[in-house]
Specification:
This protein is α/β, with parallel strands linked by helices and 222 residues long. It has a single domain, classed as Alpha-Beta Barrel (TIM Barrel), CATH 3.20.20.140. 38% of the residues lie in helices and 21% in strands. It is built from 8 helices and 8 strands; from the N terminus they run βββαβαβαβαβααβαα. Strands 1-2-3-4-5-6-7-8 form an 8-stranded parallel β-sheet, with helices on both faces. It is globular, with a radius of gyration of 17 Å.
Length: 222
């Protein structure tokens, strides 16, 4: 039987291990994709910290049109720790959410201390079938339950898996993905730690996460 691959829902690095399936986030001004590989997908978006870049959305749309095989829009979002007016962040985030809706692509969401604004933005889009991923989630269980109730998908942050095993254990009953984000992390080790905290057999966890990964990124063959 073939080994079930570990899936990385959001990373900024091309996976060197061919047994890892990952969604790789690229700069929104990207003019050329890395060599297409069977074990990675791509996302393009404007991070809230880059909200003030001139002609940013126009450049993003041009890049998106250049790469029809793109798997997701993002990461984009709302961050109260970023020195950019929230109204500007919100306006740009909504444009990217509208682009994702137009292209029928999932949305990779970065949210820091702005959950109320995110909920308000989400109301403008149909909840049924919504594919918005809360990447690098490290909040408490109550927030996780609320997000899932509002049809968001969670991707757990490496620090939550590594340093908050009790919080990770609470996620056992919720659907979640795993990611490495921009950290130099061993994804397979994160899966081992998550399986231990959640008391889920390793292969069962990989299968469960892989199935959700395939559904979220609309992969017919996964």
């Amino acid at each position: 039987m073939n080994e079930i691959p570990c899936t990385d829902a959001h990373t900024h690095c091309l996976p060197e291990d061919p047994s890892i399936l990952a969604c790789v986030n690229l700069p929104f001004e990207t003019e050329k994709l890395p060599a297409e590989g069977k074990n990675y997908l791509f996302s393009l978006g404007i991070h809230p910290a880059e909200s003030l870049k001139e002609n940013g959305f126009a450049l993003l749309r041009k890049s998106v049109q250049r790469f029809p095989s793109l798997s997701a829009i993002g990461e984009c979002g709302l961050d109260k720790n970023v020195p950019v007016a929230m109204e500007k962040q919100k306006a740009l985030f909504l444009r990217q959410a509208e682009l994702a809706e137009e292209l029928k692509k999932p949305l990779i969401v970065h949210c820091v201390k702005a959950w109320d604004i995110l909920y308000d933005c989400a109301k403008r889009f149909p909840a049924k079938g919504r594919k918005w991923l809360i990447h690098s989630f490290r909040g408490n269980f109550s927030l996780a339950q609320e997000l899932v109730r509002h049809s968001f998908t969670l991707s757990l942050a490496p620090p939550l898996i590594r340093t908050m095993p009790e919080r990770a254990a609470q996620m056992r009953e919720l659907p979640f993905l795993l990611e490495t984000d921009d950290a130099q992390e061993d994804l397979k080790e994160l899966f081992v730690l998550a399986a231990k905290s959640c008391k889920i057999p390793g292969e069962e966890l990989k299968k469960r996460v892989r199935t959700l990964f395939g559904a979220f990124f609309q992969l017919d063959t996964l």
